[in-house]
Prior knowledge:
The protein is an alpha/beta fold. The protein has helices spanning about 20-30, 75-85, 95-115, 200-210, 250-265, 270-280, 280-290, 290-310, 315-325, 385-395, 435, 440-460; strands at about 5-15, 35-40, 120-125, 125-130, 135-140, 145-155, 175, 195, 220-225, 330-345, 345-355, 360-365, 370, 415, 420-425, 470.
Amino acid sequence: MPTGDLVRKDIAVIGGGFSGTVVSVQLLRHAPNLSLGVIDKNVRPAVGLAYGTDHAAHLLNVPAGQMSAFASEPDHFLKWAEQDYEFPVDSRSFLPRALYGRYLLALLEETCAAHSLHFDWIRDEALAVRREKAGFLIHTRSGQRVLAQTVVLALGNFPPGNLGIHGLRTDSRCYQRLAWSKEALAGLADNNQVLLIGSGLTSVDITIALRANGFKGRIHILSRHGLVPQCHSPSLPWPGFQDESLPRTIRGLVRLIRNQAAAAAEASGDWRAVMDSLRPLVQEIWQSLPIEERRRFLRHIRTYWEIHRHRVAPDVGQTFFKMIASGQVQVHAGRITSYSEINSDGKNLAQVTFRDRYSASAKALEVDRVVNCSGPETNFRKIDSALLASLFEQGLVRQDPLGLGLDVDRNGALLDCTGTPSRCLFALGPARKGMLWETTAVPELRVQAANLADHLLRAPLAHQSVPQTVGAAVSSEILQR
Ligand SMILES: Cc1cc2nc3c(=O)[nH]c(=O)nc-3n(C[C@H](O)[C@H](O)[C@H](O)COP(=O)(O)OP(=O)(O)OC[C@H]3O[C@@H](n4cnc5c(N)ncnc54)[C@H](O)[C@@H]3O)c2cc1C
């Protein structure tokens, strides 16, 4: 698309990972003549952050039977994988994330082929959204402008924030803030030492990637609690919580889970099945909790929740725990007290000291690389994003009161600075975390995408079709990869 053209769309989706792709597919399935544009900065369309990995050892952490892009067609992914994956597959298989990326791309290409007249994939970064009389004007990094009646933000997770560690140099090669960037693990020698800050799924991912790269050195994982994600394991389904009244306090929630886990264990079951049967109720429980109770959850329960709820595939867990048992991976609990870099024999080393959580003693590490695996920044005011800055500046959005995302209503409509829900500006995915808490993975996001598509197609504005393109014709870039 030549620079400077104005493209007009009924709906523009900013972000073309899982959520942006699936909401677009849903919209076009139900409104084939809708004029729709997706603006995505990723070089590879549809895969987003999660499914762009090339490591075969990076597996989905949800079984194939629950990874369909459509809740109404639960076997959609499974059927596709049965045809397109070279190994046998069943609904309990934990398949490679790269394969899932291919599935999303196939879905997108199918949609492009069927709707090439009205659908455009714009490989670009949205830098600002400005409210105009005629709609929202989106400015992109390459100078393009897209005028849309309705805008959906499907931006996914943002990189981790600044760790606030004195002495940490963000411009140094030793310290890598973006765990999934190519540079994060580049240039490491087999016998180097690496420190991963944070002990959640990201650090497991990076450990697995290091192993796949043939890295033989020591990997230190450091977090406040030193707790690592649990593993999935086959367990009988647990009947669920239908007969239980839902807790209104965190204490009640913890008691409920403990009682159910004990009952499951007595019946030769497993706490994992209890967590899984609770999952469909989490959004409802979260919304019914008073804000003080939600804060209490974040303060006291979050870490324990994360490691039980966000589990890794059995094969990944097996590899990871073997690496811990062999001593190659060492997990530490504590708080970093100092960071400095020295030059030794022509190479930079990071010297990190931390106060051990259990012994209260000071411990020191000297490593070749430090990778920030502390999880996405959710305080949208602190995120370094021109797009978010433009939205805040115009008062079009506000942060949710818990600092977990953007403030939205039940349909995902963004609340402006006065708390009024927009009729034309929506968020999809992790940005809704303050409202929903459970809004991270495919089983929830596909429902959100379908509901949002349905909502948008019922809204009067979405029916006001606007002329498609002013200026040169727009091509579907996705088909020219
Ligand atoms: C490593 C990893 C593994 C995961 N594994 C699983 C799993 O196995 N199963 C599961 O269910 N969930 C998994 N998840 C959760 C995952 O977040 C969701 O499944 C899903 O991919 C989230 O989709 P999304 O569209 O919200 O974000 P993403 O897929 O990350 O998409 C966001 C897109 O927006 C683009 N973008 C952002 N800002 C702009 C801008 N200003 N202009 C243009 N484009 C922009 C980004 O480049 C990106 O392409 C995993 C997450 C991660 C990080």
